[in-house]
Amino acid sequence: MKALVTGGTGFIGSHLVDELLRRGYDIRCIVRDTSNLKWLDGKNVEILKGSLFDTDFLKKAIKDVDYVYHIAGVTKGKNYQDYYRGNVETTRNLLNASLENQRLKKFILASSLAAVGPGDDAIPVDETREYKPITSYGKSKAEAEKLALSFKDKLPITIVRPPSVYGPRDTYTFELFKYVKFGFLPGVLPDEQILSLVYVSDLVDGFILAGESDEATGKVYFISDERIYTWKEIETAVLKAIDKKVIRLKIPPMILYSVSFVSELVFKLQGKASPLNLEKIKDIRQKNWACSIEKAKKELGYKPKVSLEDGMRLTINWYVENKWL
């Protein structure tokens, strides 16, 4: 079997490449000229340098593969157009290029819980939830999903929606561990917030199950951990993994919004995307970012294997071993 992976140089995509290789797949990765190939170096991967906006290039890249895993995407942008271009237009280009591949078994689109937005109450959302994204990122992911599903009569499409993902190579979770290492644990989330998480290897299993399942064609699945967590439970797991006493710093929402406003303004003047902006604060301040995986368990046979405690321990050990911490 041959699989094309976009985003193979990134956190999630590189783990997917590793597991597909372990399972005997031939792997082809589309990368940019500026991509850092450190997670692919030394591995039996065919590297194609090109653009997701180059139609002829994409047709050649896809022409003889069995699976397309579209993992690449934009998670940080200056405006909605950045997200639309990086998440919707790239998906459209790949879908159109895939139409000429008669051997294609599955086109798997990596989406996000953000596409449907946070839950309205304390009940985890499931796949019947209508689209209610609250950020530009979420709106672009929703549009990418709608676009992909419009092709389901022409192509075998499956969409996978993870919540927040963590594990080795993740730079987002790493920022939290850096604060903890120096003895501080910033409190920015509501105490009553519930949320889902998924360890990266469990997500990769979900991607592959979705890819290999005929029943999954034309459908959408949440892939997450078995449990729903409170922020307090996540804090406890982090502190246990790093084994360090910390000072908890509760940051009032007004300060968060003020700092993000200034950050957004400064980066905008520089023509760059701010890592901290008003939409991001709005996103993390929601009280319900939890999702149900019952559909994936029933139809795909999905079963997460890594607990929060083990996942945090594995992640921190990797950060230490690789001298990130």
Q: What's the short version?
A:
The protein is α/β, with parallel strands linked by helices.
SSE pattern, N- to C-terminal: EHEEHEHEHEEHEEEHEEHEHHEHH
Residue runs with pLDDT of under 50 for 5 or more positions = none
Summed over residues and divided by their number, the pLDDT gives a mean of 93
CATH superfamily of the domain at 2-166 and 196-226 and 290-306: NAD(P)-binding Rossmann-like Domain
- Please outline the major beta sheet: 7 strands, parallel
Shape category:
globular
The CATH C-level name of the domain at 2-166 and 196-226 and 290-306 is Alpha Beta
Order of neighbouring strands in the sheet with most strands: 3-2-1-4-5-6-11
The residue fraction in helices comes out at 40-55%
Task: Report how far apart the termini are.
Answer: 38 Å
Number of contiguous helices: 11
Strand content: 15-25%
Give the tally of β-strands: 14
Q: What radius of gyration results from the CA coordinates?
A: 19 Å
Question: Structural class from helices and strands?
Answer: alpha/beta
Protein name: Nucleoside-diphosphate-sugar epimerase
InterPro entries: Epimerase_deHydtase, Lipid_A_modif_metabolic_enz, NAD(P)-bd_dom_sf
Pfam family, one: Epimerase
Domain NAD-dependent epimerase/dehydratase: 3-221
Describe this protein's structure.
The strands form four sheets. Strands 3-2-1-4-5-6-11 form a seven-stranded parallel β-sheet, with helices on both faces. It has a three-stranded mixed β-sheet with strand order 12-9-14. Strands 7-10 form a two-stranded parallel ribbon. Strand 5, helix 4 and strand 6 form a beta-alpha-beta unit. The model has no long low-confidence stretch (mean pLDDT 93). Helix 3 packs parallel to helix 4 and helix 7 packs across helix 11. The protein is globular. It is α/β, with parallel strands linked by helices. It has a domain of 213 residues: NAD(P)-binding Rossmann-like Domain (Rossmann fold, 3-Layer(aba) Sandwich), CATH 3.40.50. InterPro entries: Epimerase_deHydtase (IPR001509), Lipid_A_modif_metabolic_enz (IPR050177), NAD(P)-bd_dom_sf (IPR036291). Pfam families: Epimerase. It comes from Kryptobacter tengchongensis.
